[in-house]
Amino acid sequence: MELITNSLAFIAGSAIDVLPIVIFLFAFQRLVIGGPMPNRKNIIVGFLFVVVGLGLFLVGLEQTLFPLGRLMAAQLTDPAFLHDAVGRGTAALVWQDYYWVYLFALAIGFSTTLAEPALIAVSMKANTVSGGAIGVWSLRVAVAIGVGVGVSLGCYRIITGYPLHYFIAAGYLVVIAQTAMAPKMIVPLAYDSGGVTTSTVTVPLVTALGLGLSEAVPGRSPLLDGFGLVAFASLFPIISVLAYGQLAAFRGRVSTSIPDARDGEKEESHAL
Amino acid sequence: MPGTAALKLKESFLALFDDAVSSLRDLLPIVFVIGVFQIFVIKAPVSGLMSLLVGGMLVVLGLAFFIFGLRLALFPIGEGLAHALAKKGSIFWLITFAFVLGFGTTIAEPALLAVAAEAAEVAANADLIARTEEAKSSYATGLRLTVALAVGVALVLGVFRILANWSLPLMIIGGYILVVLITTVAPKEIVGVAYDSGGVTTSTVTVPLVTALGVGLASSLRGRNPMTDGFGLIAFASLTPILFVLVYGMIA
After folding, report:
1. Residue boundaries of the structural domains of chain A
2. Chain-wide mean pLDDT for chain A?
């Protein structure tokens, strides 16, 4: 019973989020473009599915993944657990002693990213636009590796307390070098994948991990050090997707199957 | 016309089944990770297995529904409007559309509400603002407006880049160099919040719409390639909030 009321509440919540966007799009079509919305029936049915789907998705996450993930983040960063695992007092812990945290960060960053709806959307689009050269699944795996590594490294930063912007600056130096070498077609997609990764599934868990960790580690404050994990999760997918493009180019697949970047006359198909 | 639409709808319902199957596959890695950590590291049994199973089914169903709706509504509407705007040839309306889409979808973003409230807490504790509810709430509202403005500006910049054919790497990397420079002079309490705000702005509904907008626009303009020119809007939407929030932290 509680599940049904919960589901309805979440669906209503996602409707409230989506409704202003729908109203804006329809109003813009009517007032600026003129005429009714093309394929109006499909659009309305589609939006209903988006709203109900997001609602159910969030209810399900709230019932399964989020409590488990939060609990796990709390347990792994619990001084008692760390003490048992290492056999030393909390004050004597060095950064290597948190290996379970790094491993968990890597695994949870990777697996939640695979299920991130916004990333699925962008991968589908990239697959269509690239004429199949970029695989939906391989792009998602590339991004997921980036998020996993990013979150793990972000945990290392919280534990050691190094300034956030050192890491970010170093990361972007890598991005600059890769941009110069990677195939041109992958660059915009790679830059986009940074922002795409961090939405519905990953952010709540990663934030819980960051706050738990900064509370548990001596000398860290959740307010000063708890933030910043999302930034890592946004930076490293850029690197991993660029690397994916470089790897694909190295194997000679991309260069043969993609039309030249400036071959603008050829109209892309919009069929989904 | 209604006949063909109905037919398409029926065909796509078959696709819904495929979506459910692939959603199941998408979620398996999470189940695996949580399971392994629960059994081998934490060594505690999982309680409420029934409720977990039901919840898992809801997640699968929800993801399948979302992807189904994505194909049916979010992608076509984004590309359709981009094509219509390009055909209309009015840069003013294109820019207005981009700005309102960015600003409007961000100001109501629930994740942003949460981050803004936390950031106000941080600022109050650091004595950047007064420790009253009033000061905190006005700081949080200011932050939300700042981020929404940043995303609106980001989409305008991104659309302008597609129109003018500017170099994306140059703009994005230039932007991040600016971010690192400003970080060195911004109050250190705002830095983490600012860097994270770039990630929270791009929600699950906004991303497909914005991607479709960019790809649609690039494919309807002569001399643009949807692959190299269509993507990149999200990259701007992740960058400008960092800059804007750092500056907000300095002046607020």
Report:
1. 1-64, 77-271
2. 81
